[in-house]
Amino acid sequence: MPNGPVGELIPPRRVLLGPGPSDVNPRVLRAMATPVLGYLDPDFIELMDGVANMLRDIFGTENGFTLPVSGTGSAGMEAGLANLLEPGDVAVIGENGFFGARLVEIAKRQGATVDVVSADWGKPIDPNEIENALKRNEKVKLVAVVHAETSTGVLQPLEEIAAITKQYNALLLVDAVTSLGGTPVNMDKIGIDFCYSGTQKCLGAPPGLSPVAISEKALEVIENRTTTPRTWYLDLGLLRKYWAGGTRVYHHTPPMSMIYALREALRVVLEDGLENRYARHEKNALALRAGLRNMGLNLLVPDEYCLYQLTTIEIPEGINDQTLRTSLREDYGIEIGGGLGQFAGKAWRIGLMGESSTQSNVLMVLSSLEKLLTNSGFEVGSGSGVKAATEIFNT
Amino acid sequence: MPNGPVGELIPPRRVLLGPGPSDVNPRVLRAMATPVLGYLDPDFIELMDGVANMLRDIFGTENGFTLPVSGTGSAGMEAGLANLLEPGDVAVIGENGFFGARLVEIAKRQGATVDVVSADWGKPIDPNEIENALKRNEKVKLVAVVHAETSTGVLQPLEEIAAITKQYNALLLVDAVTSLGGTPVNMDKIGIDFCYSGTQKCLGAPPGLSPVAISEKALEVIENRTTTPRTWYLDLGLLRKYWAGGTRVYHHTPPMSMIYALREALRVVLEDGLENRYARHEKNALALRAGLRNMGLNLLVPDEYCLYQLTTIEIPEGINDQTLRTSLREDYGIEIGGGLGQFAGKAWRIGLMGESSTQSNVLMVLSSLEKLLTNSGFEVGSGSGVKAATEIFNT
């Protein structure tokens, strides 16, 4: 029995303040409605080059190779690990949240030996522990950490880890899925060899592509592999011949509409100015935090290494996670995230990323949360969230 | 030195009559401009279910599991081989074109032993040769063939190969990238275990997703693996927990805008009616072939196993491939494909897929080709291409 066609596409209106996707810039939505081109059309090739160049600006790199991998952020993660690691290689991976654990899992699937450096959820990885791991293994090929851990809200400082990694002549892979476009990544300055991100966080595009930047050193390692990568779809040696070769060698048909979207999103980011964008993410996050604290809520990550893109809140005792988030979504049209992994049922995650990072969204989520919490019997302590946030906005 | 933002997105207008992407239905373009939802939003989950159900209709299956894999057609290919094959498994793979060769390459990267069954480019795989391969190997896990070989224009008959494969208790994997939506696939009736396609051919959506259908038998094989698949991004066991689980377990953030696009495209396909759609592809292809032949051009695949979606033409002696295709693109706004692999520089590929398969496109490409060939000194033999095509349309 055939199912037949479904009805018209009429999704509800939502303000996306979860861990991503975040709201998409209207210019980006419109760009996707542009008719597609052939994958070897000179006009499309020019467009690819424009995207690759704008990505360089945003990653902070003038060297190596940049491209949007044809998959979501996790595809960028897999592309990095599958192309840089060969069976038997040793990787040191920082695991202090859900996405660090994913790095470990994917590295193992490449046949690599993984030395895991853990930290508690909500804390960054200790660079000394990375150094210990580099010392205790004969030859480490790769060190990998998550810059912005979306499961906990922790910003990982990179400078020290990068210096140690360089000292041991290993490659540094960094997950910048949630940081790129909201927090400086500074790939060349810090010395990152492989950095990947997603389009649906601070860049203001829908999910579907993973912007990737690769250093010259990492490219050499990829060129000198003795085995083929276990993935063909994400084989960067082959992808480079299409994205950066003098003669463009067809690999797979790129997702044109998503590339249009990313192109428009990157234009918006660069027109805004990176510094202005970082400052906006910071100010809105500070206002949100002040508001949440003024309502008597407990934040799970100290300000010292708390992301501006994502704030993790301890769910107060006696408050039902599901009930509150459902009401927030259905009655107020606001999506916030629940906890992942160790934080499931214990934390809320409020994202202020890209287009979603606005003063009005901060005020709206604080006001709605305050009302719902009060209705559920939670005693808002010292005062109003909106009031405290407004004070920050007015400074 | 930063590169700065590029200019406004203003791609040229093209009619896509190459090997894909094909033109996108305007309803589908518009659907992509719809704001995105969270990946666990109940409204999004409902939308996913709708897509999965419509895919069942189009694949011709009531069993197993359907989903759009978050990558292009080649990601669907890799998902199939990486999840069904384990290191040491034996696969028998038909190779009579560029995409058969890709199947072989990807299967090898899974650690499988591949017994290649070849046929000349432009010919289908001989089922007897598949049977010989099944006989000469102790235990074959998987037989793989390309239903519609986009590099040559050959339609592979599946019934006999499916029967033999079943007899030897192997799984049948079929590449339906170019066939789905334009030629019946009949997954259950024929007995296909794993079938994948692309959105940018006969479905009328942009490239970016790979619709996949998996039989119950193949799902069991995936469940009973003794090793994890080498890919995490395309791990179907994990993806199934998100796409079909009672509790939806987050795997990766799906490319919502592309899923909106596919959803709208599938609605259009089912509203058109599959039979009507197949008939349209057939009639337009017959008209194109009649026109090309009437102009004295030589088609590379006999009608007996020639695709309706794609017609391969021998480039006449004395005609410059690049010059003609560039003029067709720049002066007439029409893209046709060059040859791939063995056919590079020797063949043109004219696609009539999905939205691009229209009477007006047939007449336009014949008229433009005729003019350009005549200008290049080619003697159009017995007569006009447009006239011959019109006769077919009027029957």
Task: Provide a descriptive summary of the structure in words.
2 copies of one chain form a homodimer. With about 400 residues, chain A is of the alpha/beta class. Chain A has 2 domains: about 250 residues, Type I PLP-dependent aspartate aminotransferase-like (Major domain) (Aspartate Aminotransferase, domain 2, 3-Layer(aba) Sandwich); about 120 residues, Aspartate Aminotransferase, domain 1, CATH 3.90.1150. Chain A contains 14 helices and 13 strands. The longest helix of chain A is centred in the C-terminal third of the chain and has 21 residues. At the A-B interface, α1, α2, α3, α4 and α10 of A face α1, α2, α3, α4 and α10 of B.
Largest interface: A-B, 85 and 85 residues
Oligomer type: homodimer
What is the string of helix and strand elements of chain A?
EHHEHEHEHEEEHEHEEHHHHEHEEHH
As a percent range, the share of helical residues of chain A equals 40-55%
How do the strands and helices of this protein lay out in sequence?
2 copies of one chain form a homodimer.
Chain A: E1 15-17, H1 26-32, H2 42-59, E2 65-69, H3 73-84, E3 90-95, H4 98-109, E4 113-118, H5 127-136, E5 142-146, E6 148-149, E7 154-155, H6 159-167, E8 171-175, H7 187-190, E9 194-196, E10 210-214, H8 216-223, H9 236-243, H10 256-272, H11 274-294, E11 310-314, H12 321-332, E12 334-338, E13 347-351, H13 359-375, H14 385-393
Parallel strand pairs in A: 1-12, 3-4, 3-5, 5-8, 8-9
Antiparallel strand pairs in A: 2-10, 6-7, 9-10, 11-13, 12-13
